[in-house]
Amino acid sequence: MSDMDRKCSDSDCKKESCEGCEHNQNNMFEPVNLHSSIKKVIGVVSGKGGVGKSFVTAMTAVMFQRLGYKVGIMDADVTGPSIPKMFGLSKRAKGSKQGIIPENTSNNIKIMSVNLLLDQEDSPVIWRGPLLANMVKQFWTEVVWGELDYLFIDMPPGTGDVPLTVFQSIPLDGIIIVTSPQDLVSMIVKKAYNMAKQMNIPIVGLVENMSYVKCPDCGKEIKIFGESKLENIANELGIDVLGRIPIDTEIAKLVDQGEFEKFTCEYLKEASGKINTFFNIK
Ligand SMILES: Nc1ncnc2c1ncn2[C@@H]1O[C@H](COP(=O)(O)OP(=O)(O)OP(=O)(O)O)[C@@H](O)[C@H]1O
Fold first, then answer.
1. Whether the CB of 258 sits within 6 Å of ligand 1
2. pLDDT of residue 18
3. What is the pLDDT of residues 186-201, one digit of tens each?
4. Which residues are recorded as binding ATP (predicted)?
5. How far is CA 111 from CA 40, 194, 202, 271, in A?
6. How far does the centroid of ligand 1 lie from the alpha carbon of residue 146, in Å?
7. CA of 254 to the centre of ligand 1 (A)
8. Which domains does the chain possess?
9. Structure confidence at residue 4 (pLDDT)
10. Residues of the chain where predicted confidence (pLDDT) is lower than 70
11. What DSSP string runs through 40-70?
12. Is 54 a known ligand-binding residue?
């Protein structure tokens, strides 16, 4: 994918800061590793931590792998990396002449995370912003991703320094915004939305996580965070609702056992169809 794939849709745009305009000389995208060929790069973002961004990234990646696509996950949530543990990966990634080799899950999803580079997975990453951002850049420039249809990036939470650098250095083809059904969330979704708009990155849509929990006795859907405001926000911003995921204690168990790939539910089946249509990969 070339940097120019992120095209500005406004033919009169003369903004020097616009990354989609060909006259922009300030393009800061880093070159991808020579041995990587990635068709689409999708960032999974949330305006705040703890809404299940990693959960949604992993579930989307597994859905696409099940559809027969070649998939990778870059765990760019450097201070709270959770992706390797979800997939039961704990070996250290190896290097080669070409670069760093990502680890493979049991179903061949390629994974790179700071946890695969640390001596011990429970060592804290106590780094300042620029160092964190550099690490993520290296996941793009140094990792040998090989041929991938989709690379999903579990983005650092929030809209601060680190996510900003990631937005500026990796040519994202689109972002998925993850949210939960709390009131505060509409403001937080708007922050993520505005950040993507300012960076000229297409927004694929919204996924609401922890939408409800099903009573194990009567099957009733209990909305523990109250009624969802998702449709209102989506309509207001003119973006698509891709899907909703309940709190699922069976999947939570799989996460703890490092066997995430064994989930059988299809909460994101429709969402994967919508994402595929958005990018039109054959
Ligand atoms: N729908 C769900 N059902 C059951 N457990 C879930 C669900 N969503 C998230 N969880 C669990 O909640 C915890 C937090 O989720 P996750 O790590 O995905 O959040 P996050 O938004 O990536 O957090 P942060 O950005 O702060 O790192 C994890 O243990 C995850 O397995």
1. no
2. 58
3. 777 888 888 889 888 9
4. 47-54
5. 16, 29, 24, 22
6. 29
7. 12
8. 42-279 (3.40.50.300)
9. 42
10. 1-27, 119-130, 183-185, 282
11. EEEEEE-SSTTSSHHHHHHHHHHHHHHTT--
12. yes
Is 180 annotated as contributing to ligand binding? no
- Cβ contacts of 106 within 8 Å, gap of 6 or more: 87, 88, 261
Which one of 44, 46, 54, 59 would you pick to mutate in the ligand 1 pocket, going by the greatest count of ligand atoms within 8 A of its CB? 54
Q: Is the CB of 201 under 6 A from ligand 1?
A: no
- Tell me phi and psi for residue 12, to 5 degrees: -95, 0
What is the distance between the alpha carbons of residues 213 and 225, in angstroms, rounded to a whole number? 10
3-state percent breakdown (helix, strand, coil) of the chain, nearest 5: 30, 25, 45
C-alpha closest to that of 282 among 67, 62, 60: 67
Rounded distance from Cα 211 to ligand 1 centre (Å): 13
Chain segment 173-186, per-residue pLDDT in tens: 999 999 888 766 67
DSSP per-residue letters across 207-276: EEEEEEEE-TTT--EE-TT-S--HHHHHHHHT--EEEEEEE-HHHHHHHHHT-GGG----TTHHHHHHHH
ipTM of predicted complex: 0.95
Nearest 5°: CA angle at 95, between 257 and 81? 35
Distance of CA 160 from the midpoint of ligand 1 (Å) = 20
Structure tokens belonging to residue 163: 């996510």
pLDDT at position 11 is: 57
| pLDDT tens for each residue of 8-50 | 656 566 565 555 555 454 568 889 999 999 999 999 998 777 8
CA angle 271/154/250 to nearest 5° reads: 60
